[in-house]
Amino acid sequence: MAPGWSSTGRRRIGAATLAALVAATVTTACNREEADTTETFPSRNVEIMVPAAPGGGWDITARSIQKVLRDEKIVKRPVQVYNVPGSGGTIGLSQLVSKEKGDPHHLMMCGLVMVGAIETSKAKVDLTKVTPIATLTAEAEAIVVPAKSKYQSLQQLADDLKKDPKSIAWGGGSVGGSDHIVAGLLAKAAGADPSKIKYVGYSGGGEATAAILSGNVTAGISGVSEFEDQIKAGKMRLLAVTSAESMKVAGQDAPTVKDAGLDVELMNWRAIVAPPDLSDSERDAVVKVIDQLHESDGWKKTLEERGWEDFYKTGDDAEKFISEETSRIKGVIEELGVA
Question: Percent of the chain beyond pLDDT 90?
């Protein structure tokens, strides 16, 4: 009888051979699973959380992504957008990290606003806990007043701000976010104490807009795209933008903060992230979809129409940028005393 064969004629499999076969099977299965994750993503509906009330910059960005993914047929599954407002996005962040671990189908908008909110609220969960997918856009902030306001220029407002920081009630996004930081920087540049300013934070752009139009606050600060329709309709007066150079807003050249003699420049960036505990192949599959979004004509048109600057970084580059921004904003908030 030939070695390695039993009396029944069947081949005996030694321990070493069996181990090798099991290892090969497991490796093949893993490789197939990774390939399937990449090739079939998304395998079900994609959900994008907006950790703020409807109407703000994150909400507009998420719904723009939803529209382009659908119109350009980049994904075959539905894309749903939902809102979890509160605390500058930190409530939504905590929910993503605690409830959606390991699921690449759950994504979340974030940005400079959240970095500031995490620092000012001393949140237990920060952006080191998520899986960065991509930074998407950068947008100048706009400083506006109601159309009936006595202020015709930013310089006029800055003069009153210097005399009495509390005489100007600022309205914008959550405390510690980009809008609040701009208000503090404006006060500092005008020669006022940033810690003395009166700032009212709102959980969404719609609430902030209503407060400005009603005169509940003196002036408002937010992304240009959030105020542009109101400026175009003549309901708000644009005093300045925080970009380095003048830009078109509602068809007109907008003055910069520096044009008013105040040395302030800031761009509000936005990003999209996934929950923690994604495998490399799962992260890469999501990045691949966002790459297709970024390269699409629909997204390029959206950037142009919204006046958003293309600020695209993915994967490790996005993670490095967010980490550096976290350190930078922490220093700014400490300096301004807005915590």
Answer: 71
- Structural domain count, the chain: 2
Look at residue 27 and tell me if it is in a domain: no
Tell me, what CATH number does 288's domain have? 3.40.190.150
Q: Are 51 and 18 in contact (CB under 8 A)?
A: no
Q: Is residue 314 a contact partner of residue 141, using CB atoms and an 8 Å limit? A: no
Give strand pairing partners of 107: 48
DSSP state of 218: S
Per-residue tokens: 95 = 């929910």
pTM listed for this prediction: 0.73
The reply to whether 252 and 299 lie within a common domain is no
Q: How far apart are CA 160 and CA 163, in angstroms?
A: 5
Both 230 and 134 in a single domain?
no
Backbone angles phi, psi at 241, to 5 degrees: -120, 155
Question: Tell me: the pLDDT tens digits for 164-190?
Answer: 999 999 999 888 888 999 999 999 999
Q: Helix, strand, coil: what percent of the chain each, to 5?
A: 50, 20, 30
Structural domain range at position 126? 46-138+269-336
Last residue of a domain, one of 267, 282, 313: 267
Could you read off the pLDDT of 303-324 as tens digits, one per residue? 998 888 999 999 899 999 999 9
Closest by Cα among 306, 335, 338 to 88: 338
**DSSP state string for 268-293:** EEEEEEE-S---HHHHHHHHHHHHHH
- Answer yes or no: do 72 and 110 share one domain: yes
- Same-domain pairing of 226 and 262: yes
Distance CA 273, CA 51 (A): 12
Element (H, E) at 123: none
Crossing angle of helices 57-71/224-232, nearest 10°?
90
pLDDT tens-digit readout, 251-268 = 999 999 999 999 999 999
